[in-house]
Amino acid sequence: MVKHNQKINLMLMVFFQIILILNITFAESYFLHQTDQITGNIISDKNGKDLSDLISKFLIDFLIIKQIGTVSAIGWSCCPETIISAKCQELASVDTESCAVEMIPSKCEEFSDCQLGCCVDEIEGLCSTKTPKSICKSDNGTWSEDENCLIQECQKGCCILGEEASFVTETRCEQLSGIAGTQKDFRDLNNEIDCLMQKVSSTRGACVLDFEPIINSTNKTNLSITGAIISNSTNSNRTNTNFTDDETCRIVTESECYEMGGTFASGYLCSHPDLNTGCKKQTTINCVDSSDEIFWFDSCGNKENIYSSDRDASWNGGMMMSKEKSCNPDVSNANSQDCGNCDYFLGSICQESKNPKVKDGNFICKDMDCIDAEENKRKNGESWCIYDSYIGDGKDTVGSRHWKRMCIDGEIKVEPCADYRGEICVQAKNEEGESFSYAACVVNEALACILEYNSLETEEERDAKCLENKDCMIKEVKVSKDFTYDICTSRYPKGFDLVEAEKSQTQERLCDIGSQNCTVLLKKGWFKSDYTCEKNCECKTKLFTEQLNDVCISLGDCGSYINFVGDGSDNIIVKNTEKISWRDYIGFAEPVEGQFAEPKKNRGPIGGESNGTDTKSNVKGDDLSGLDMLGTIAGGLGTLVGGAQYLYGGEVLYASGYGFFAAEGASAGVGVTPVFASFGAAAAGFAIGSIIGTYWAKSIGATKETAMIMAISGGIAGAAIGYALVQASISTFNIYVIVIAIIIMIIAALFGPRYKTEKVTFKCQQWAAPTGGENCEKCNEDLLKPCSAYRCSSLGQACQLMENDTKNPICIGSDDDGKPPIIFPLNTSEGYKFFDKTNDGVEIRTDNQKCIPEFTLVDFSLGTDELAQCKYSFEKTKGYEEMTETFTESNSYSMNHSTSIMMPSIQSLENEINETGITDSLKESYAKLNLYVRCQDVYGNKNVKEYIVNLCINDGPDLTAPYIKQMDPKNGGNIKFNSTQTQVTAYVNEPADCKYDTIPKKAYEQMNNSMQCNTQLESSGLYGWPCQATFSNLKSGANKFYLKCKDQPWLNESNTSRNANTEDYIYTLNVAEKKFNISSISPQGVIKNGFAPSQVNLEVQTIGGVENGKGACEYSFTQNGEYYQFFSTFSTKHKQTFELMGGSYTIYVKCEDETNDQDSRISQFDLQIDSTPPVVINYTEGEKIEFYTDEDAECYYHPSKCNFDFENGTLISTKFTTEHQVTFDPSITYHIKCTDVWKNTNPDCAIILNAPDLDLPMIVRAYNSNSELKIMTDKISKCYYDFETCSFNPVNAPSMTTDLTKEHTVNWIPGKVYHIKCANAWGNFPIDCTRKISM
Amino acid sequence: MKKRGQVTIFLIIGIVLLAVVVIFFFLNKQDILNPNQIEVNQKEFLQTCMEERITETVNLIAIQGGSINPTLKKTYDLEDGLGKKNISILCYNQNFYTPCINQEPMLVNHVRDEIEKNISQDVKQCFDDLVISLNKKGFETSALYKGFEIKLQPDKVILEIYGEITTTRTDETKKEKDFEIIVKSKFYNLVIVAQEIISQEARFCHFENLGYMLFYKNFNIDKFKTGDFYIFYTVEDRDSQEKFRFAIRGCAIPPGI
User: Fold this and answer.
1) What are the residues whose beta carbons fall under 8 Å from the beta carbon of A1063, sequence distance 6 or more?
2) Phi, psi (5° rounding) for residue A366?
3) Per-residue pLDDT tens for B111-125?
4) Of the candidates A21, A371, A663, B183, which lies 20 to 30 Å from A520 by C-alpha distance?
C-alpha cells in the first residue's frame, strides 16, 4: 500500500509540473528547447540552465503583463492635465481615469501643446529646461525647441556686479545691473567656477571729507603720498549728502568717493595719520557680510585690515593689505586666537564666539570641519557614504539603503539615496595630501546586469560588459564538474516592493532566474540491488544550496537571507538536497568599515543628458528608457546561448551508432550475390536486432555497457535470424545462437548495470519579511536614517508605517489577534463554479456541476480574512511547514490567493509513467483530487486544519480535437527579405502530432509534411506543447500553410480514438518583398553653430523591409563599440539628439527591421563653432553706402553711438547676407553693428561710416597704482590694448574701459608693453597707437 | 495774600498752563505736522500696515513651493516645526526613469502673482485705513486707489501702491501719488535658486546641492528623498534663515522591476 501511494504521489508530482502553468518556473521552461528527451539521452535534464533563454522567457512573461503592455508607443497617450493637476504627462492609453481632460492618442512629444522646450523669462533672463510649450506660453514666457536650453539667450557668462561676480545670462546681467544701478559688465566666460573665483578689481581707499593733510603740501590735487594717489573731487555739485554729520572718512572706491564729493586716498585706511581724519585705528573687530575674515574696525566704524593680534602688522602703516599678505593666508586659521584670516574654502569663516575667541574680541574663525559618527574629522565640503550593513558581492541586505553624508559649514547633513537601492552611494577618496572623500548617490544598474548583459549573444560579450560595469559581477556556480555555470548578476541587488501584490508577480519571476535543477545520476552495478551516486553527487550537498542561494540573493530581495537588522526568512524551496538557513547570513547585517562602492566610469544620473559623446547609462535616461531597455532585451529573444551539455547523450548515441552503421551495411548488401546476400541478410538482421536491443536498453535506463551488450546481443540474434531466413532453414546452431543471444540480452536487461536519475531542485523565491512585528521599532531608532515603507516592511510582516507623509515616519507592529486566517472561496474562471462551500473546503466543478475536462485550464482563487501566506499540497500533511506548493503570489502575504490548474488525461499519464497497475488508483485520485490548503497570518498564526479544495477530472474518452494556441513566428508574421525557409513552432493545447501542407483542406492523414512534436507532459510551456518544422520553398510576399493536429500521440496512427482537426489552421508567413535599407542619414559634411555644446540631431530614414521601412536604429561613436538605441525610433524616421563640442565626428548607425534585416551607414561631419561676430571686410561710400561682411549677417546703424541695442537702431539688411547697403544721407554718421545667425554681435561698431572730423582722445596721464595700469584721457573715450603691435583692431582687442570715460584701468603685468588705442565717443580710433606704455 | 504768595500762585498757574499747552501740542503733534511730513507718515503708515502682511504671505508661499493653495502638491511634514504642509510639485513626471517636466517655468512671475493675489484686499484696506486715519486727524482727504504691484528684487520685496491722496487743512493742500513699500526679504534670491534646481533636475535628473552650497555659501540647500520617489528641496538663506521649499518627482526608480 505504501508503495502504491508512493507511485500515486510520483504521478501527481509529474503532472504537478504541468498543472501549474502560471507558476511555471524557468526550471521547466527550458524544456521547450529540448528536442531529444525521448530518444537522445538517459538523463533528460540539463544542468546549468540556458540563462539567455530564461531571461528571454522572463521578458516575454513580463511583457504580457497588463501594465507593461503599454511599452509600445501605441500604448501611450498624452494627458494635457491629470486629475492631480500635473501637466503634459504620458499615461498608458487605457488609463483614462487619471486624465482630467481628453487624452491625446499620441506621445506628448508629438502633441504640440506638450512639446518640451526651453522657456525663457525675457525680463528676468532666466531659462527653464524641459517645459511644455503650452505652460510656457500661457505664463508669457518665450518658448523655443531646445529642451535643454542650449540657445544663445540662455548662454551664461560672468556678470560683474560691484565687487561680486555672478554666472548668469546676459539678459539677467542687465536686469541685475539695472537693479543695482550699475552699468552692465558682462564677460564672456563660460565657466562658473572661473567666474565666481574672479577677483573683481576695484581700487578702494579712504574717502575723506574736507581733507586737510598734515604733511607739507601746497597742492591738494593729485598729491602723491608714498606712491598712492590722493585726488580731490572735481565735481562741482559736491554735496556731501552721503556723509553723516560727524563722519569724516569712509572706505569706498574712487568713483564712489567722487560721487560723494570726498577726497580719495587710494589704498589708505581712514586711520592713516596723514589723512588727519580723527579716526583711531583698530578699536573693534567684527565680521563683514559676504567676507570670510575677521576685520579690524577704526573708531569711525570703517573696516580696516584682516585681524591679527599683531596689531602693527595688521595695520600695515595705515595702508590696506590684501588677504594674501595678511596673516597665515594658506591655512584656515580655524580657532586661531591670533589670526582672523578665515577662509571658507579652507574650512573656516568669521563668527561671533565667546569661546574660543581671538585675543581682541568675541569673534573666531569658526572651524567648518565636522566630526563624523566614527570620530573621524571631515573637511568642509567633504562627502562620504554610510551603509546599513554589508554591501556589494550581491549581499546588500533587505530594507537597507545607501546614505550620503556631507560636511557643510561644520554640520553633517544626510542625503538618502533612492530607496529600494534604486541608487547606490559611491565614494572616491583623494589620498594625496590630506584625505578628502567625495560621495554621490548614483543609479544602481542592477537590472542591466541581469537582464541586459546575460542576453548578449556571446559569453565573451557578456563578460566584458559585466566586468566593465561596477554594479555588476560575474557569479560563478561550480558545484560539480558537470554542474557549473556563471551568470552576470548585480553587485548591489535592487530592493523589492515587499507589500504591493501587483509587483510581486514580476519580482517573483526575477527571483526565479535563480531557480535551477541538477540531475544526479545514480548507478546500480551488476547484480546489485542499490543505486549509488555516479555523477553530480555534489548537488545533494549543502554546497549546491549555498551557491545557488548566493545567486538567488544577488538577483534582488530573493532567497534565504536577512534584513538590515539581521533578522531573516527562508525563501527557497529545495528538493533532494541539503537545506540552508537565513541564519547562516547573519554576519552580513553589520556594515564593514572602509567598505564603499566605487564610482564607475561614465556613471551618471539617469534620465539626464550626458555631455557630448559621453556614453549613456545603461539604464537609459531618455524617455521610456527603462522600458526601452526591456525592449532591447526582448529583441534578443530566441538568441540562445549554448553551454549546457546533455549528460551522457554521446554515450547513448555511441551505442545506437553500432546499429545504424550496421543498418547501412545491410542496405548496401541487398541485391548482390547470394553468398554476400546471405551476409547482407545477416547484417540486416544484426542491424534490426541491435536497434531493438538499443531501444530496449534505453527503455530500462541501462548503462552504456549494458546497452552495448544488449545492442550487440540483439544484433547477433538478428543476424542469426536473418541468415536463417535467407538460407530458408534454421539449423540447430542457429537456434543456439539465437537463444544464447536472447538469454544474454535478458540477463543484461535484468541484472546488468542500470542508471536512474534524481532531480535536485532549487527554487529561488522572493524574500518575505519574518512573521511578527517585534523588530518594527528598530526602524525608528536612528533619526539620521529615517524609516520608509521599504525599511519598515522588511522588519516584519506585522510592521506598518504610520504617518507616512512625514520625514520620520514611525514603524509599528500591528496587534496580534492570535487567530489563524479564515480561508474562503473567492472566484473561479468562467465556466466553473464553487459548490458545497463549507468552512472546511469547497468543490470546483463546471457550471453544470461536472468534472473538469482534461487539458483544460481552471483558474481559481481563495480569499483570507487577513493578510496571509498560503501553501497547499496534494496530500495531507502534518503542518504548514511541510507544505511546499505555493499559490501565484508565491510566499507573499496577500488576501487573495490564486492558482491555475490544468490536468492531463489519464491516458497521457499512463503513457508517461508506463505503469498499468495503478490505473484504478489514478482514476480514483482524479475523481477526488484534493488540494489541501493552509495559511499563516503576518504574526505566524497558522491553520491547523486544512482547507480542502476538491477538483475532479473527467476521465472519460477524449472526444475533442486539439487546437493550436499560438504560432512562432506569429500567424501573419514577417520574415526576412529573400528568405526561402524558416523554423516554425506551433503550440498545441494538448500533446498531439501535427502536420502541414501547402494545399488546403487535405485530411490529416493525407498531409505531406510532419512536424516534430514534443508530447511529453513536462514539455508544456506557457502556450502549450510545441511542434516544430522547417517551412521551406518560401516566396516573396504571403505564403500560406495549412496545419492540422491529431491528439493522443501515444496511440497508433490508425487508432480511431484519436481526434484530428477537420478544419485547417491557416497560417500565413510574409516574406519581405524589399530589402530593408537606410535611405538617408544626416548630418554629413560641415555643420555650424554659434556656441558649444551644440545640439546636433542625428536623423536617419529607413525604407523597404516589411512595413515600408519601419525598424529600429542604434548608434555608436566607435565602429566596434557599444551601440545605443535612438531616442526616437521604431518607425521609418529615427532621431537622436546630441550635445557636442566643436570637432569632427563619425557616428556609426545600424538599423534593422522586425525580420532582423539590417543595414548600416555612417554619419561623418565636422561641427564648427562660430563664436565671432561679423567683420566688415570692404565698403564703399557713394549714393549708397555698401559694405560686405565676412559671413551672413544682419546689420543696423545708429546715428550717434556704437553702444546701442538693435531695437534702437535702424535695420540695414533685409535678411542675413554678406552684402549690405543703405541710402547715403550725408547728415548721418553711420555707427554700424552686425549680428550673425548665431547672434554673435559686434560689441562695438563693426564700422563707422561718414564720421565727422576725427577728434581723437589723448592720453594725458598714465600711472601704476596697486598693480594696475591707469590712464587718463582728455576726453571721454574707450581704450583698448595689445601686447604685440599697434596694428590691431580694437574691436577684437581687450578693453580697458567698460564705457565712455576719462579713466581707464587694466591689471598691470610687469615687463609687458601696452600698445594702447583710444576711440572717441564716435567710435573712431587712430591707426597707430595712442600711446605705448611700459613701466 | 502776600505778594510773594501771589507770585507763587501765578507761577504755579503759569507752569500749569505751560504744561497744558505742552501736553496739548504733544497730543496734537501729528495734526500740526507740515505737509512735507505727511508724505513720510503716509508711507510709514502703509509700510507698517503692509509689512507684516507681506512677510507672512511671502513666508507662507515660500514654504509651500510658491503657491498659497498648490494644486499639484505633495502633503508632507519635514519636521522642522512647520507641520504638515501642501507643497507644490514644481517639476513632475509620474512615470519611472524619465526626467521631470517643468510645471512652473516662469516661477518668479508665478510667485509674484501669488503674493499679489493674496494681499490685494489688504493693500486696499490699508489704503482706506490711511484715508480714514487722515480724516480723523482733521484733514480733508480726497483719495483715489488705482491698484498695486509687487516687484521682486534681490534682498527685497517691493510693493508699489498706485493711487493719489490729496490732503487739505487750513488752506494748505498736499497731493501725494504712488507709494513704494520695501520689505527686506531674501525671497527672490531663494526663488532664483529654486528655479535653477528645477532646471537642473529636469535636465540632469540631479542637482548637486553640496557643490552649490560651497560656491554660494549664503544658501543652505537640503534635499530629502521620500520612499515614494519625491524629492523635497529646502533652500535656506543662511543669514535671514528664510526658506523656500518645493517638491519634484522625476527619474523615479521603482522597486524591483
Assistant:
1) none
2) -70, 135
3) 999 999 999 999 999
4) A21
**Range with the lowest mean pLDDT among A501-510, A1098-1107, A1160-1169, A1231-1240?**
A501-510
Check residue B3 and give its pLDDT. 65
> For residue A232, is pLDDT > 70?
no
Question: Which residue, among B67, B102, B195, B216, would best test binding to A if mutated, counting the most A CBs under 10 Å from its CB?
Answer: B102
Percent of chain A with pLDDT strictly greater than 70: 79
Q: Among B78, B108, B253, select the one facing A422 at the smallest CB separation.
A: B253
d(CA A26, CA A858): 22
Closest approach of A1252 to chain B, Cα-based (Å): 43
Cite the DSSP H helix spans in A625-754.
625-635, 649-669, 674-699, 704-727, 732-751
- Give tens-digit pLDDT for A863-914: 999 989 999 988 889 999 888 788 888 888 889 899 888 777 777 777 766 5
Structure confidence at residue A851 (pLDDT): 86
Q: Which residues of B touch A510 (CB under 8 A)?
A: 256-257
What radius of gyration, in Å, describes the C-alpha atoms of chain B? 27
pLDDT higher at A9 or A1249: A1249
A545 contacts A764 by C-beta, under 8 angstroms: no
Minimum-distance CB partner of B75 among A419, A627, A805: A805
- The cell numbers describing A541, all together, are 550537498
Alpha carbon distance A496, A513 (integer Å): 15
A89 part of contact set with chain B, CB < 8 Å: yes
Closest to A373 measured CA to CA, from A335, A403, A332? A403
In DSSP notation, A1058-1088 reads --B-SS-EEEEEEE-SEEEEEEEEE--EEEE
Whether B26 and B87 have beta carbons less than 8 Å apart is answered as: no
**A800-847, pLDDT tens digit by residue?**
998 778 888 999 998 888 999 999 999 998 999 999 999 999 999 999
Residue B218: list chain A partners with CB under 8 A: 290
Mean pLDDT of A679-697: 49
Q: Residues B124-136: what's their mean pLDDT? A: 91
A338 vs chain B: nearest CA distance in angstroms? Answer: 25
Q: Which residues of A732-769 are buried (b: 16+ CB within 10 A; e: fewer)?
A: eebeebbeebbebbebbbeebbbbebbbbbbbbbbbbb
Burial class of residue A1326, CB neighbours in 10 A (0-12, 13-18, 19+): middle
Alpha-carbon distance B185 to B188, whole Å? 7
| CA pair distance A549, A561, nearest whole angstrom | 9
Which carries the bigger pLDDT value, residue B66 or residue A733? Answer: B66
Distance CA A1156, CA A1086 (A): 33
| Cα distances (angstroms) measured from residue A1108 to each of A783, A970, A1133, A1154, A1162 | 60, 19, 11, 12, 21
Task: Tell if the CB–CB gap between B105 and A135 is shorter than 8 Å.
Answer: yes
A1173 exposure class (CB count in 10 Å sphere: 0-12, 13-18, 19+): buried
B153: chain A residues, CB-CB within 8 Å:
179
Do A790 and A916 contact (CB within 8 A), yes or no?
A: no
Q: Do A1277 and A1290 touch, CB atoms closer than 8 A?
A: no
Residue among A61, A124, A617 with most chain B CBs within 10 A, to mutate: A124
Give this complex's ipTM: 0.86
From the list A140, A380, A506, which residue is nearest B109 (CB)?
Answer: A140
The whole-angstrom separation of Cα A899 and Cα A1207 is 74
Higher pLDDT among residues A233 and A645, named by residue: A233
Amino acid at A842: V
Question: pLDDT for A1300-1328, tens place per residue?
Answer: 888 888 888 877 888 888 887 767 777 67
For residue A962, the SS3 value is coil
Work out whether strand A1210-1211 and strand A1176-1181 pair parallel, antiparallel, or are unpaired. unpaired
